[in-house]
Design a protein that fits this description.
CATH class of the largest domain: Mainly Alpha
Helix content: 55-70%
Shape: elongated
Radius of gyration: 25 Å
Strand content: under 5%
CATH topology of the largest domain: Vanadium-containing Chloroperoxidase, domain 2
Strand order of the largest sheet: 1-2
Length: 437
């Protein structure tokens, strides 16, 4: 009888063991090459919901995507750390050669740990993270699962340590930016006359630039209302375009608006529309280009990381010049000197005009993407969920040119701000291309 009982429990234990093994052998229910696209899209949803300003959004994407890459690149021992060539990062933790890991799992853990630390509305991030982690927990060995989670955690900690010392917190406590009435200098604009956005962003530590002014553009045209001056000619160009705007130009302007918080006023009523930021739009394009080129997960992570870091540095470079030049917006000058009730097609963002921020970060992103993937044609569906619009482009650079000119069609940037801004961004992108082959 005793032997029978022992035999019975032995069989039960064996069955439990094999059952457990069978359960852990389940395949993952997703394509690892598309996984980062889902993570970035979820982060974009949160950035839109939390209404982060464009420079802050760029910062969130950069740190989160670096965390993903620094974890997953260990799948290919021939690849190297990106942060090792950037500034102010401590050395990244390395996998223990005596342990086994799932580097995709580590990347997910690292990405979401950083993303949650840098955003406010964490619920949807937590939900997505938990669903993904559960899939891995059911599919891989417990030891590998725990090793991978620990690696992702430690990599994220190094990323977040850099983020905590990049002067972002310092700029949160600085005095409010003062605006004085001065000819040719930026004034708050209708309809809300909002305070200046991120006047101290030049103090944020760049990823690769030696300083915020490394890619400084030439000075903006001198404010001069003489009809023969360059400034006046560019001002009238905007005014004349606004008076004969075509349907195509209107569509282009709105397609690339990417203003995270646009207010609408109807009598005494006011409501706001949330949209993606310029950085978010280019993250969407990055995903499209990576899928189209059939990039594997490591290549995809590299492209996301480099593009978002170039955008991060582009914002620092651009904002440095914005608050140096303090160039007035067209709406202020046109209303004071040409037509009192004139409105730009797009709502003017609350910061100085020169150079065009869209043009700078587009120049940076487009140059990195063209270098990493190729200057290929693509169909952009990023704005489908926000505007119900999609567009096709013959190349990445053609899209970049359209982004730049869209700011004139919108009535919010002079030609010099567009052209010099794009050149400034291209310089930032070229710097990344010279370092990261």
């Amino acid at each position: 009888m005793k032997k029978t009982i022992i035999a019975f429990f032995s069989v039960v234990l064996l069955l439990s063991f094999f059952s457990s093994c069978k359960q852990k052998a389940n395949k993952l229910f997703f394509d690892v090459n598309n996984l980062q696209h889902q993570c970035v899209h979820r982060l974009t949803d949160v950035i839109v919901y939390d209404i982060f300003t464009p420079p802050v959004a760029g910062r969130i994407y950069a740190y989160s995507n670096l965390a993903y890459y620094e974890s997953i690149h260990w799948k290919d021992k021939e690849t190297s750390s990106i942060t090792a060539k950037l500034k102010n990062f401590e050395p990244m933790p390395k996998p223990d050669n005596n342990k086994k890991y799932d580097y995709t799992l580590a990347a997910i853990k690292s990405f979401f740990k950083v993303a949650k630390a840098l955003t406010f509305s964490k619920d949807s991030l937590i939900k997505t993270e938990n669903l993904l982690l559960k899939e891995f927990e059911n599919a891989i060995d417990d030891e590998i699962y725990n090793n991978s989670i620990a690696l992702g955690d430690t990599i994220a900690a190094v990323i977040l340590k850099r983020a905590s010392s990049d002067n972002y917190k310092k700029t949160r406590g600085m005095p409010k930016y003062s605006v004085f009435k001065q000819a040719g200098k930026w004034q708050q604009t209708s309809p809300d006359y909002m305070d200046a956005v991120e006047p101290n962003w030049k103090l944020i530590k760049p990823m690769l630039l030696d300083s915020a002014a490394q890619c400084k553009p030439i000075s903006a045209p001198l404010y001069d209302l003489n009809k023969n001056s360059q400034y006046y000619k560019e001002l009238m160009e905007i005014y004349n375009v606004s008076k004969q705007i075509t349907q195509s130009q209107d569509t282009i302007a709105h397609y690339w608006d990417d203003n995270p918080f646009v207010t609408e006023h109807k009598g005494h009523l006011m409501f706001a529309t949330k949209k993606t930021t310029p950085a978010g739009h280019w993250m969407g394009i990055t995903g499209i280009l990576c899928r189209q080129s059939k990039a594997n997960d490591i290549k995809t992570a590299k492209v996301y990381a480099l593009t978002s870091c170039a955008i991060f540095d582009g914002f620092i470079s651009c904002w440095d010049e914005k608050y140096r030049s303090r160039m007035v917006r067209p709406i202020t000058v046109i209303r004071e000197n040409i037509e009192a009730e004139w409105n730009s097609l797009l709502q003017a963002p609350p910061f100085p005009e020169y150079p065009s921020g869209h043009s700078v970060i587009t120049g940076a992103a487009a140059n990195v993407l063209s270098f990493q993937i190729g200057n290929i044609p693509f169909h952009d569906t990023t704005e489908l969920e926000y505007l119900g619009l999609e567009r096709s482009f013959s190349s990445i650079q053609q899209a970049a040119d359209e982004v730049a000119i869209s700011r004139m069609y919108g009535g919010i940037h002079y030609r010099s701000a567009i052209e010099q801004g794009k050149k400034q961004g291209e310089q930032v992108g070229n710097l990344y291309n010279s370092i990261f082959k």
